[in-house]
């Protein structure tokens, strides 16, 4: 099968990678491609029986990245997982209220992208949004306090689980309207291009969002203006309890980019290395002025849609099958197999994270709620809005 070599990128993306051991990787599947690209090894689609599945995602025979990158991935993904396990417990105790959507199982989708992008890049996603700011460097204290609706939260306690926001790390939310962030992602990329910053925007969405009309308008404009944006669909198989197969004629969601000649490709969302590579290729294209890319991360959430979902619409076998490909376990296995760290050193990282999460709970517990006058702050009001008549 034909493969296309990737060029070395000057960005942070490939500095995370071992210079001596670059593998050749397929280019995105766009109409401009002349070569038929091979399909990467992917987790099963959600209508496949476990026995039909592709080979299990295992640690590579030879690690492609330096030790520091694997250790960073391990620490970031463990922080996401442990933080959210705690958030789930606290929700059960009614310390956290309202909606709460956990990212457990999908951690590689963020960790692999963080290592492939640079500091000034903008990030936007839907309401399953705790992991993104955690990996970008927002303090767990500020995220936990936001879950508690406390004034010290990253959205001043006024956003809650679905509306995390942190300008410091370029995390632009946290959006509750399915697909609402897609045109905003294009707009953020437009600003970067207009201001000639050299930065890009990575815009995440769920599989439910690709059916929204606004996505199609945004894709068209992003291609027309060659905006520096990476659109990512995290296809975890379900929009609430409804599977992709029940709502879409096109089940390989990355094909949707083809209608706009947008370079598009499927990625094994349970494999942090594959995600890094795909995002690095897309970033290189965006920074070279070649415009957007559409990536479909094939992933899975281990928990229900939100805290109130017992997830009865899927089988135990399906869940177990994805758990057996767990990205954190894979990275842990790579680290240990290749002597990048000892069991004791990984345990020390786990202990550090446990303490960080515990500290965030104490911080949130001891923080005040916002005062009543906060109600009228941070509200967008346009005084001369033309259509209001007295
Ligand atoms: C425009 C709009 N319609 C419906 C909803 C209700 N709703 C909330 S989450 C959701 C499912 C979205 O699933 P998906 O995009 O696959 O994301 P996931 O939850 O799997 O991360 C729906 C329909 C909404 N928030 N916004
Ligand atoms: Mg989904």
Automatic annotation (TrEMBL):
Residues 1-66 are annotated as: Disordered. Residues 7-18 have a biased composition (Low complexity). Its cofactor is thiamine diphosphate. It holds the Pfam family E1_dh. The pyruvate dehydrogenase complex catalyzes the overall conversion of pyruvate to acetyl-CoA and CO(2). The lineage of its organism: Bacteria, Pseudomonadati, Bacteroidota, Cytophagia, Cytophagales. Keywords: Oxidoreductase, Pyruvate, Thiamine pyrophosphate. It comes from Hymenobacter metallicola. One of its GO terms (biological process) is pyruvate decarboxylation to acetyl-CoA. Its EC number is 1.2.4.1. Residues 76-372 form the Dehydrogenase E1 component domain. This is Pyruvate dehydrogenase E1 component subunit alpha. Heterodimer of an alpha and a beta chain. GO terms for molecular function: pyruvate dehydrogenase (acetyl-transferring) activity. InterPro entries: DH_E1 (IPR001017), PDH_E1_Alpha_Subunit (IPR050642), Pyrv_DH_E1_asu_subgrp-y (IPR017597), THDP-binding (IPR029061). It catalyses: N(6)-[(R)-lipoyl]-L-lysyl-[protein] + pyruvate + H(+) = N(6)-[(R)-S(8)-acetyldihydrolipoyl]-L-lysyl-[protein] + CO2.
